Amino acid sequence: MLKLHKSQRIAAILKILTDSPSKVFTLGHFTEMFGVAKSTISEDIDTVRDLLLKTDQGYIDTIPGASGGIRYVPVLSQAKISKLLNKLCIELSEKERILSGGFIYMLDIIYNPEKADEIGRIFASYFFNKNIDYVITVETKGILLAFSTAKLLNIPLVIVRHYSEAADGASVNINYISGTSSRLQTMILPLKALKRNSRLLFIDDFMKGGGTAKGIKELAKQFECTVEGIGVLVSTSEPSAKLVDDYISLLTLKSVEERNGIINIVPNANY
C-alpha cells in the first residue's frame, strides 16, 4: 500500500492508465494500491480526466456494472490528427526520398517508435469502437505500425508471413498478387494464430492496387474470421480502383516526378 499525496496519486494514476491503454481498471484496484476511499479515488480520476481532455491526449471511459471500472481511451481530436498528418506529408515530400519506379522512402518514418506510436494512435482513434479482436499485418514493414495500433487497442497482434517455420505447426497457405510488385506471393498463417469468428483489423504501411489487403480478406475466410477494418498509412491515387473498397488511408500519394524531384502527397480528405 502506497501512502501518497493527492498530486502524487494523480501522477501515478495517469501513468498507470496511459501505460495500459484500453485496459479496464476497477476503482478497487486504486483504493487498495493507495489506501484511500473510493470517493477520493473518484476525485483523482476526475482530475486525470480533465487533464487528458485539455491536453488532447484521449479520455477516460467509465464502464458501469459489477465488473466495470475505468479505462484510458487513446483517441485524438480531428484537429490533432490533421496536424500530425500534415507534418507527415511535409516530411514525406522531401525530394531525397524519391526512389526509382515512382516510390518514396518511408522506412525512417515507419520504423521510428515515436512516429509509429502517433500513426497507431490515429488508427486507434478511428477503429476504437469497431469491436476488433485482433490486429493483423503482413511481414515486415507494417509490423511496427500494427504493433502500436494493437497496443493502443489492447488486443493481440497477428503477423502473416511469406515462409513457414517448423515452430508454427499446421498452417494455412494462400497465394495472392501483390499490388506493389505485381508478383505472385504466398501468405502463411498458423492454424492456432486466430480464434474462429474473430473480427480483424488489417494495418499496413502502403497500398497500391490492394492485392495484399484482398489476400488478407481471403485468408481470414479460411479461419472463419472477418476483416472489419483496413488501415494503411499511404495509398496511391492510381490505380483509383483498388481490389478492396472498405479501407482507410491516412495519406494519398498522387504523383512522384523523378526528374523534377517533386512528391505530391496529401492527407486523405476522406479520413
Write a short abstract of this structure.
The protein is of the alpha/beta class and 271 residues long.
Task: Summarize the structure in words.
By secondary structure, the chain is an alpha/beta fold. It has two domains: 6-73, Arc Repressor Mutant, subunit A; 78-267, Rossmann fold. The protein is 35% helix and 27% strand. The protein has helices spanning 6-19, 27-34, 38-54, 78-92, 107-110, 113-127, 143-153, 211-222, and strands spanning 59-63, 69-73, 98-99, 103-104, 134-138, 157-160, 171-177, 184-190, 199-207, 226-236, 248-257, 262-267. The chain has a six-stranded mixed sheet with strand order 6-5-9-10-11-12, with helices on both faces. Strands 1-2 form a two-stranded antiparallel sheet. A two-stranded antiparallel sheet has the order 3-4. Helix 1 packs across helix 3 and helix 6 (113-127) crosses helix 7. It starts with 5 loop residues before the first helix and ends with a strand. 31% of the residues are buried.
